[in-house]
From TrEMBL, chain A:
<feature type="transmembrane region" description="Helical">
    <location>
        <begin position="332"/>
        <end position="359"/>
    </location>
</feature>
<feature type="domain" description="ABC3 transporter permease C-terminal">
    <location>
        <begin position="292"/>
        <end position="406"/>
    </location>
</feature>
<dbReference type="InterPro" id="IPR003838">
    <property type="entry name" value="ABC3_permease_C"/>
</dbReference>
<dbReference type="InterPro" id="IPR025857">
    <property type="entry name" value="MacB_PCD"/>
</dbReference>
<keyword id="KW-0812">Transmembrane</keyword>
<keyword id="KW-1133">Transmembrane helix</keyword>
<dbReference type="Pfam" id="PF02687">
    <property type="entry name" value="FtsX"/>
</dbReference>
<keyword id="KW-0472">Membrane</keyword>
<keyword id="KW-1003">Cell membrane</keyword>
UniProtKB/TrEMBL annotation, chain B:
<keyword id="KW-0812">Transmembrane</keyword>
<feature type="transmembrane region" description="Helical">
    <location>
        <begin position="275"/>
        <end position="298"/>
    </location>
</feature>
<dbReference type="InterPro" id="IPR025857">
    <property type="entry name" value="MacB_PCD"/>
</dbReference>
<dbReference type="Pfam" id="PF12704">
    <property type="entry name" value="MacB_PCD"/>
</dbReference>
<keyword id="KW-0472">Membrane</keyword>
<comment type="similarity">
    <text>Belongs to the ABC-4 integral membrane protein family.</text>
</comment>
<feature type="transmembrane region" description="Helical">
    <location>
        <begin position="359"/>
        <end position="381"/>
    </location>
</feature>
<feature type="transmembrane region" description="Helical">
    <location>
        <begin position="329"/>
        <end position="353"/>
    </location>
</feature>
<keyword id="KW-1003">Cell membrane</keyword>
Length: 416, 398
């Protein structure tokens, strides 16, 4: 039965090449855009090096203090994180590191911009960097203010030259020489919470990071023991934050309220995009995303429905014959839906190839430094799902319309 | 004729419904994109006023040294840089420089009129020459301003027009926006510059004002952005020399030198890439719709073969048939556009997104014209085919 449908579908596709082209063009482009978008979303929000254990990680990277007519939005400071977040009992590990500092290094009269993070030694346990040379620095080195650094492969290539070894050599950042102890694989710039070119112990920071101020330029990641443990860690975190004494005044402003959050990667993203203050409502966010996708798919769908109706009307006599020989309306609907899904799947395949091309183009263009976008199995399954939904969406109405054709008129070939 | 066409479409509204819907959604997409592009264009037309090509920006942050020493060191840095042959002008200014993405907005009052503007502190009078600002009225800050008992302020033309209209501004007194309870600060306008838009080309706010401070004036906060205008054609190698000159200041300084053209490029890249993505996607959506309309029209004309034959046999010229089909599709488009305009006019009426109403109206007009152009383009070939049908063959087949 299905084999017959497939055969008919194939023949119909070949009959009016122009229509097939229009349909395939619309389908493949729509699906391509959706696949590229999903791949981007996955790249920003999914587990990727070095944030592999995202299901166990909570990010503390925003701090908001409000007073009378005064709001301060900043990163938390080292003092705050060290005093209130570091002592938490439930997480397996906690890392505190600075946001990205931008410096320029000069190599052979060439400027090399470097993003530097000042970090503790726990960073190497919480995050999963891939070391291609040497290894991380340890806690003792951080405490003794050792001038050591871990750099990325790209930095090694730009600073020391192609194919050279870096471990044991010195890199100069902000007029301080650091000894390279490790080289890690490049981090994509879309990893906004962890991206850097160079990591050095936080004790090397020139500014006084121990100042008793809540705001500053640090971030923290809490690593829970298991994904189920996340709620426990969150509860402890908010319990501690609740009791943090709010600094009375600073620059003559009376502070009243302190807001710090421990968010998962997705929550942290939504908080940044939607400027959410309280609890992040993920359901609402997904609704927005789904509505957006539906709105984008609306126009191609209407277009496809329109074309499908035109194509069906060409086949009135075929439908009449089938009806006269006893095919029920539902059989015809199923047949047409199968035909349409096949068409969509072919379009999806073209779209997949196109999406792969676009992603490769983006990787090569250097639009996102060190990006390595690709279509992974999750995205492939997801796109397959999109294809089938799209096929059904655009096939139901024309199929219904077709099945309702009166057999007699259809046989006569009359216009309905 | 037109009434007749409307009747024809209305009678077949069910089969035309999908086409109307398609036109409607295409219009909404076009309307959105046009609004965005027009607002960008309007912003782009507002001059930036900054000759960014040969400006280098040095951010010199001091850590843990006394304020007085910091000021002395900064003064020293400026002197040393000024002495270099390749450097034309040097000035320290506030951190919200062009393309830095730092913004400080503050209000300015005159006669109960308020304007929100970029607030720029100028610590050296050479700032005007570094940025290449053009005066249109009055003068720039001078040494004498330090001894004057009236604190001077300089406005951009945009800010001046909002506060004073066409009247001259020089000599008038404005007050700075303030919190309740704060002392009111009065400033005297000494000049108006043509433009200064630190937010860059795509920024809408062209209102800025400049305040003068000096490093010697310890009552005011000191700033740490050193803006340097180098001679045209200075090689990037010179960067290292600049850093050598200023790094003598001490180890507790963090120095970061950037070139304004680089800052501008990265700013443009970041602001334009989402827009270009949007344009490509919308372009393909519209192309998709165009191809679809073309296919459907072609198909429907094939279906009405005998009708055309009959009309031709009864004396309609091929031109008449051509006009009828073109007219029909225009009427269908009009139905979709009426529906679309109904939704689009809600935007200026309800004031969504803070865009000026004029942008929305222009966007509506442009999108309507684009949709009409699009449907006519799609209808020309099928209509011509319909017009070419020979009455004898059409009737014979029937």
């Amino acid at each position: 039965m299905l084999k017959n449908y497939l055969k008919i579908a194939w023949k119909v596709l070949q009959r009016r090449k122009f229509f097939t082209f229009i349909s395939l063009f619309g389908i493949s482009f729509t699906l391509m855009v959706l696949m590229v978008a999903t791949s981007f979303a996955d790249y920003i929000l999914g587990p990727h090096m070095p944030e592999v254990k995202t299901d166990r990680m909570l990010y503390v990277n925003r701090l908001k203090v409000t007073g009378e007519g005064y709001t301060m939005n900043t990163n938390p400071g080292f003092y705050f994180l060290d005093k209130y977040v570091r002592p938490l009992k439930t997480p397996q590990d906690i890392t505190i590191y600075s946001s990205e500092f931008a410096y320029n290094a000069y190599v052979d009269n060439r400027k090399l911009p470097l993003g530097v993070r000042f970090t503790d030694a726990s960073l190497w346990n919480v995050l999963d960097f891939v070391f291609t040379e040497g290894g991380p620095f340890n806690k003792a080195e951080v405490e003794s203010i050792a001038r050591v650094a871990v750099i990325t492969e790209a930095t090694r290539e730009n600073y020391f030259g192609e194919g050279k070894k870096a471990v044991g050599q010195y890199i100069e950042v902000d007029r301080t020489k650091y000894k390279v102890v490790g080289v890690v694989k490049n981090i994509a710039a879309t990893r906004t919470n962890t991206y850097a070119d160079v990591w050095v112990p936080y004790t090397n920071l020139k500014e006084d990071y121990r100042k008793p101020e809540f705001g500053g330029s640090f971030e923290a990641i809490l690593l829970a023991r298991s994904p189920e443990d996340m709620a426990v860690v969150k509860a402890e975190f908010y319990n501690v934050i609740k009791d943090v004494p709010i600094p009375p005044t600073s620059n003559g402003v009376h502070f009243k309220n302190l807001q710090v959050h421990a968010d998962t990667l997705v929550e942290s993203f939504v908080r940044g995009v939607g400027r959410v203050d309280g609890e992040v409502n993920l359901l609402l966010f997904s609704m927005f995303v789904i509505l957006g996708v539906l709105f984008f798919m609306l126009l191609p769908t209407i277009n496809l429905v329109n074309i499908n109706i035109s194509r069906i009307m060409e086949r009135t006599s075929e439908i009449g014959v089938r009806k006269a020989f006893g095919a029920s309306s539902s059989t015809l609907v199923v047949q047409f839906l199968v035909e349409n899904i096949i068409l969509t799947l072919i379009g999806g395949l073209i779209g997949l190839v196109g999406a792969q091309g676009v992603l490769m183009l983006i990787n090569d263009s250097g639009l996102i430094p060190y990006s390595d976008l690709s279509i992974n199995p999750t995205i492939f399954v997801f796109s397959l799902l999109i294809c089938i939904v799209f096929g059904i969406l655009s096939g139901v109405y024309p199929a219904y319309k077709m099945s309702k054709l009166p057999a007699v008129a259809a046989l006569k070939g009359g216009i309905v | 004729m037109i009434r007749h066409l409307f009747k024809l479409i209305w009678n077949r509204k069910r089969s035309n419904f999908l086409m109307i819907l398609e036109v409607f959604f295409s219009f909404l997409v076009l309307f959105g994109v046009c609004s965005l592009l027009i607002s960008f264009y309007i912003n782009y037309k507002k001059p930036v006023g900054i000759a960014y090509e040969n400006i280098w920006v040095l951010n010199a942050q001091a850590h843990d040294i006394p304020e007085l020493e910091k000021r002395q060191r900064l003064e020293q840095m400026v002197k040393r840089l000024d002495a270099l042959d390749e450097v034309e002008y040097v000035a320290i200014g506030s951190e919200n420089g062009p393309y830095t993405r730092n913004t400080w907005n503050s209000g300015l009052l005159y006669n109960n009129k308020e304007v929100i503007a970029n607030m720029v502190y100028v610590q050296h009078d050479a700032f005007k020459d570094v940025m290449g600002l053009e005066m249109v009225e009055g003068r720039w800050f001078t040494e004498n301003d330090a001894s004057s008992n009236q604190e001077p302020i300089i406005l951009t033309l945009d800010a001046k027009e909002q506060l004073f209209g066409d009247e001259p501004a020089v000599g008038k007194k404005v007050t700075m926006g303030h919190m309740p309870g704060d002392p009111i600060i009065e400033k005297k306008v000494v000049g108006v510059v043509e433009a200064y838009k630190p937010g860059g080309e795509l920024e809408s706010m062209g209102e800025s004002y400049f305040l003068r401070t000096t490093l010697a004036d310890t009552a005011q906060q000191s700033h740490s952005m050193i803006y340097i205008r180098v001679k045209p054609g200075t090689s990037p190698v010179f960067e290292q020399r600049i850093l050598d000159q200023v790094s003598g200041a001490g180890p507790s300084w963090t120095l970061n030198l950037q070139m304004m053209p680089d800052l501008r490029t990265s700013y443009l890249k970041q602001s334009l890439s989402p827009v270009i993505t949007l344009l490509i996607v919308c372009g393909f959506l519209i192309l998709n719709v165009a191809l679809g309309l073309f296919g459907v029209l072609w198909q429907s004309i094939n279906k009405r073969y005998s009708e055309i034959g009959l009309r031709r046999a009864l004396g309609a010229t091929s031109g008449n048939v051509y006009k009828q089909f073109l007219g029909e599709i225009l009427v269908v488009a009009t139905f979709g556009l009426l529906l679309g305009c109904f939704f689009a006019v809600q935007f200026p009426l309800l004031g969504v997104f803070d865009f000026p109403a004029q942008i929305y109206t222009t966007a509506i007009i442009v999108s309507v014209l684009l949709i009409y152009a699009l449907v006519i383009l799609c209808a020309i070939y099928p209509s011509r085919q319909a017009a070419a049908i020979h009455p004898a063959t059409a009737l014979h087949e029937e």
